[in-house]
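Re: the 978-residue chain
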Amino acid sequence: MVGLMALVESASCADGLLMNGDFAVEGGGPGVLTEGWGVSDVHEAVYTHVNDDGASESHSIVYSAAEAVPAGPVIQEFACAKNTEYVLTAAMKSDGTAMPLVRVISRRGDEALTVADLVSGGEQAWTVKTMRFNSGNSETLQVHVFGDAGIPAEGRATVGKSAIDDVQVYLASEAPDELAGDLALFDPPGPNIALDSPYTLTPAPNYGLCTDPDDKTQLTDGERTVGYFWAQPTTVGWSNAVPCVVTIDLGEVQPIAGVSYSTAAGVAGVAWPQSIGILVSEDNQEWTLVGDLIRLATRGGVPPVDKYSQHVFATGALQTRGRYVSLMIDSAPYCFVDEIEVYRGPEALLARAPEGRKLADPKQYFNESRVLSAILWRLNSDLSGVCDEIAASEMPQAEKDAVLAKADNLAAEIADLPEEVPGDFQTILPFSDLHARVYALRAPVLKAAGLPALTVWQRNRWDMLLPTDLPAPDEYERVPSLTVNMIRKEYRAEAFNLTNATDKPVAVRVNVTGLPGGDNPDYVSVREVLFTDTKDRYPIAAALPEAEAGDDGYKIRISAGCSRQVWLSFHPETIEAGQHTGAVEITGPAGVPSLRLPLTLKVYPLDLPDEVSIAVGGWDYTNGEGAYDATPANIPLLIHSLREHHVNTPWGNGSVRPSGGGYDAEGKLTAELDFARWDAWVQRWPDAKHYCVFLAVVGTFEGEPMGTDRFNRMVGDWAKAWTAHMRDQGIDPGKLAVLLVDEPHRDEQVQTILTWARAIEAAAPEIVIWEDPTYRDPREADEVMFDLMDVMCPNLPIFMSGTEEARQFYVDQQAAGRILWFYSCSGPMKMLDPYTYVRGQFWWAAKYDAKGSCYWAFADEARSGTSWNAYKLTRNQYSPLFIDATSVTDGKHMEAVREGAQDYEYFVMLRDRVRELEAAGAEGAAFDRAKQLLEDGPDRVIGDIGVGNLSWRADTDRGVMDQVRVELLEALVGLAGM
């Protein structure tokens, strides 16, 4: 790096560790932007030191880029002490495009490890941001100033403009008073008495990237992790282990004033802990609960959930004693920590018995407290966000002060929230009157911004939406138009958003008028999209219950200061083809203006077949008493919903296979098999396209080791009896597909598949051998396994991220007679994009002529029993629906399954018509365009879909599928007269 300044040691701690942090000294020269700050001469063109705009005075660094030229950071290096707490602060502003970033890094050779990040949220006024960090094992660190947060990854400037000022690093103990109230700052109430103390871990750490023999000492060694947290050996980590318990032995009974827990979260599916129970004991037998660290540490605000950051949850509010301190950590699906500290309190605490709840079984606390902790997190997080909006608003200061005083009162209510959670609690936002009043604080902010009492606006129906999202200023008075293009017998949707800028909840009436069939025709359903929280503490708008219907229309409720989405689902079966114009009438209460949205429904002269061509399944396990979160009470509702969404391929678990019977010494079947459970399942799914069964076979069958002649005869007779029974039922045995071993990727799994598949194939070749290999490169597998497969179903995210050679392997296997399907099993499902992850899978299937599409799993809500209280989840959930023990409610992810299956059917319809015309010798421009669309249509869609944008929070153009879909419709109509 040209011009990098020498190590800065001269700055006093009182003034901060960085030289010229306010950029007041111009300095300059080759490679020096302003005194103390170096910049490469390759990159300095996008940075300017100015004397006409600053946060505190007139100086600052301005970033301005008109094109994507090479760009890097402005840098200063400084000395620090090892394993010491520091505070990074900076003032930033943005044009809304370039998002400035100030980063502290540690260099280990050529490797740069991130220690702390301050990132702009797009604020267009000077905004001060602060973060506490630990130096880890470093004695020197660097501060890197970027004009845009995308530069570290891309190495090039982002078009836009931003400014940075007052960049400084302080010892945490010597930070200025004006920063003392910041969330990042915490002053330990006493020395760390847990340093180098032994501890136990239950269960044993199991996260591969950071698990090592030193896990037994790293949590109390005083060394903090530097770099990407869970990839460093200094971190201790677990996967799918809830709760994780760390019990520290202080050696003798000690007075205890506080505890801290250092962790990271915000990306890669890693969420902040939901609760951390603090328990103390003098004998490691009887325990006293003295608090929840998350509740104690987040009363002043919470760390961000939507970006990577390291954070220390800390409290100095304990007044207790003990030799053993146990932290019971609720963090799913991952738990990571690099340091735990226990702070000594005054000697007087030794004379006081610990106050708190006595627990014979500490897990009793865990099961009862985790939901309350998440409630408090959500309330504190939303209140903190509202206060930030108030502070940044254009309201007069007196009004700001009045609203912030109300916020203080709400904060006190939150702190005093009762410990008991109602048994019927649901994570539908807002989930209480208190929560609604938090959101209502936004009303004066929205009014000051110029929003009318009720605003209607629109985004793509698949885009992520938060209850606090707002229309752009130019949408305040502009009414959007709604357009739906479709064919008869299919389902398509359109959506719009309503924002309530008043300080009271509003209920409006929605009526669909002017379309064939009269007002609110029966082929249009109106859904009130619910906001629900997730275990990752990021709200989603996915649940699609039917809106309450009345004589005066559908009732839609909008909380004060919030937005609400309305989802319109269309399913015309008999109406005349053509373009129909109508409107959506929105009628508000007194004082709220009524609105009218133009609505165009274009119905093409085509009909969706009664059954879609592609196999659609999702390990529903709706056989017997059900599995995961399928129950006897909800199974009929679940099956009804799945069939309505084109699910035609049920999955049963191994219990549906025929059982009993008897076998002689040679393996011949000598007694009839019991088909009762199979028959009951088939009755639930009459006329299914396929019956898929996960057999989960092992190395024996009815006690006979696999591979023997007797084993082969036994399996063969059993399989033949099964297919014979299916014929007696009038079911084609070719509809039966068996998954022998799930996700094979090891040699021993392959050998099991080969042995079973050969025995089945020899006796009952009609049975489909269905496997889902998970090799990154399938060429590494024993190709004989593929020879024995009838259906190969690779994991789509693995397939899409693999090499072209790996994908070509499956194409070659298709040419050799194998059938291709795709499946996905990432999670949590409701945090994944219904557009890219769910609906997009069908476009990949269209591209590669795959015949099936499956998802894990339609009834898996992490065995919590409900989709309506995500705070109960101890691992990822996977259901695209909202289910509980007695109900099933539609969701956007399930709608994406249905629309994706219909998209695929468009390709089938157009392909069949093209083949028909091609056989007849057709020619012409319309015919050529249709053939070309079959080739490049899927490419245009999946070109924007990759493993990097399967998250719902990813920035994605979600309109491409419908653009191509309409082109397919136009092509089909264009070929109709040929």
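The chain has a mean pLDDT of 92.
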